[in-house]
Design a protein that fits this description.
alpha/beta, Rossmann fold, 2 domains, 5-stranded parallel sheet, 4-stranded parallel sheet, 13 helices, about 35% helix, binds N-carbamoyl-L-aspartate
């Protein structure tokens, strides 16, 4: 395995200038010698990368089934340590990343809130980030602020230890590794019906503040003849920037508030939660929008192959009785997160060949 830290990347004037640049113009910054180093934006992934990563995730899950395979995996990266810096609530993203690290033999440190770290003593985010990098080889971060993971990568690039950074959710902006597991799930759910190309995918709920649907929309650019249906109450319609992106890439999309009419049309329904934590006063935003809930009776109206997905956590968006239907893919989806994140970490540390050679 090669060292990954030796790097010379372009340096920019200041953080504010860098952050203000259009995403497409700074994607190279997150690469080293043509390979993805930091994972900040879903726009970083192309089809070849997605196909390879999903194949790798399949191999990892196969190996992990046996004692010998699991031992091989755990011997891949015992010399690496990861920091899970999760200062916004998380269950799945945290646990799946942590268990992905365990699978590959990495040791993990965690911080789950700023109240117990020296940030309460007034340490700057920049110094806190540098401190993490002093001890670990990988930083995985979730933060309520858009741009925090990116700032972490930017700050570290100017230090002696520019360790890779993975964005585990940056405010209402992006959640690129969720989009990876969503793609991996779609690919598996559609394995016997030709994969993701040509499919019609509905995204339902709070599309305005939901970062998962934003990142997934970016990733769907990589598939042929995909049509998107955005189904949302007027106040939570998908933001303009994503629609501009889709138009630029000639990806057809429809917007509607009529969930019922979309049900029989689509191959996947991606439900989301109202993200009221981003409201000025979350306790006052209590409307549940029942017209945008997937109910048991809807099962009769969707295709036999339709995948029902949800990044979770669920509140009322999917009736619990739906869980028993084989088309309910969300519990498989959350487990897929662990395998695809293991594949991503293996990729970052260039351990793919060692995994693939087990199948040669
Ligand atoms: C999502 C998130 O945090 O954005 N959850 C997750 O990571 N699986 C979705 C949500 O919180 O609604």
């Amino acid at each position: 395995m090669e060292q990954i830290a030796e790097t010379t990347r372009q340096t920019y004037e200041g953080w504010d200038d860098f952050f203000a640049k259009p995403v497409d113009e700074k994607l190279d910054f997150f690469k080293i010698r043509g390979r993805i180093f930091d994972v900040i934006y879903a726009q970083q992934f192309d089809r070849e990368f997605l196909d390879e990563l999903c194949d790798l995730a399949d191999k990892i899950r196969l190996l992990a089934k046996t004692k010998m395979g699991a031992q091989k995996l755990s011997r891949l990266l015992p010399h690496k340590r990861a920091m899970l810096y999760f200062v916004q609530p998380s269950t799945r993203t945290f646990l799946s990343f942590q268990n992905a690290c365990f699978l590959l033999g990495l040791n993990v440190s965690e911080s789950r809130g700023t109240s117990t770290s020296s940030e309460v003593k007034g340490e700057s985010p920049e110094d806190t980030i540098r401190t993490f990098a002093s001890y670990v080889d990988l930083i995985i971060s979730r933060h309520p602020e858009a741009g925090f993971a990116e700032k972490t990568a930017w700050v570290l690039n100017q230090t002696e230890r520019p360790v890779p950074v993975l964005n585990g959710g940056s405010g209402p902006d992006q959640h690129p590794t969720q989009a990876l597991l969503d793609i991996y799930t779609l690919r598996r759910e559609f394995a016997s019906i030709g994969g993701i190309d040509g499919k019609r995918i509905a995204m339902v709920g709070d599309l305005k503040r939901g970062r998962t649907v934003r990142s997934l929309s970016y990733l769907l650019r990589n598939y042929k003849d995909v049509t998107i249906y955005y189904v949302a109450p007027e106040v939570f319609r998908m933001k303009e920037d994503i629609k501009v992106f889709l138009k630029r890439h000639a990806i057809p999309f429809h917007e509607t508030a009529d969930f019922e009419s979309v049900l029989p049309k689509v191959d996947a329904i991606y439900m989301t939660r109202i993200q009221n934590e981003y409201a000025a006063d979350p306790s006052r935003e209590t409307e549940t929008y029942p017209d945008f809930h997937f109910k048991k009776e809807h099962l009769a109206r969707i295709h036999a192959h339709c995948a029902i997905m949800h990044p979770l956590p669920r509140r009322y968006e999917i009736e619990v009785a739906v869980d028993k239907d084989p088309r309910a893919a969300y519990w498989r989806q959350e487990r897929n997160g662990m395998w695809i994140r293991a594949a991503l970490i293996a990729h970052v540390f260039r351990a793919e060949q060692e995994i693939l050679s087990e199948f040669a």
